[in-house]
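Why show two proteins at once? Because comparison is the fastest way to build intuition. When a single record is shown, students tend to memorize it. When two are placed side by side, the eye starts asking what differs. So, the first record is below.
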Amino acid sequence: MKIEKCKGVYEPEDDSYLMLSIPEVKGNILDVGCGTGIVGIHYLEKGNKVTFIDIDPRAAECTKRNLELNKLKGEVIISDLLSSVRGEFDYCLFNPPYLPSDQFNHIDLSGGIVGNETTTRFLIQAKEKCKVSYVIESSIAPIDWRNIECLCHEVVGKITYHLEEIRLIRVWRCQQ
């Protein structure tokens, strides 16, 4: 896989590569907040159908360029989380911005004042469109699961830095 970095678009980091280590992901996939497209392109190369979405038009263009670079095809949509997405997906993959906005005000880094607001909005929307989701969470701004009904979750991977732990979380609809 060839991935070119694009100015103003989140560059693949360890959290991006953590999203590439999920063996169960197959079928109809939604790459949410696609950035460079690295996550979706990885799963597209494995023969899956992938739709790419990002709120930032620069990221959407970057993903399109990286799809062309890899001679692959995938639908790329500019969307505020799942607001412009139709249908249901087997897997939704989201490496969200998760830093508090008092530290960073960049769209690709800040997840809100606390840092987990964007992730929480995604999870609430994902209940209707995603059979299973995978999200990245930071120990700096952990997800408050009390605010999200009807979803079960488990940590399936993690990376530890000096003062922060990055977690890969599998999320699915609980039986009611």
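Second record. Ask yourself what differs from the first in the token line.
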Amino acid sequence: MAKILVTGNRLRLRQAEECDIAYIMGLEYEPENLKFIVPFSEELHLAVIRSPEESMDIIVEEKDSGEPVGYLWVSGLKNTSHEIEWTHVIIGKKGRGYGHEAMKLLKAWTFDVLKAHRAWMDCKDYNARALHLYESEGMVREGLIRETILTNGVYENLVILGILDREYRDRKERGMEHAGEP
């Protein structure tokens, strides 16, 4: 039985299992997603699924149907500074508000369950849709790493975004976050 991490109105986050590997790999290598991420190998995903102490693959699924709608990769679970990296945030069913709910659930799990101090992520600077989502969910642009990734012979920039536990709690007090407890 898959471990449920947190549940929202329409979605829930659960720890990925080996049977999810085809779905994860399909999302990563879908052309619309691939241009915005650096994909990981199936072997790496399987290693993380089998031993999720430092990093974890997480499936975003519809609460009622159990149908997967996205996938997350989270790292830093043993970080002594209580800093979590959200390495991949990929929603397969776009345009339904699932990205917003998935981000709210990810923040609730990160700050309410894991008791993290800080969460951060990077995003390619031309991924306007994702940057809008992350910033609308309270992420703050902290910097720009110029020409750091070489993709198809072109150097790309990464925007670094972060959110602190006190910023999350402030948003939660103002009713901007997941209302229930994980």
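One difference worth noting in the second protein: The chain has six helices and eight strands.
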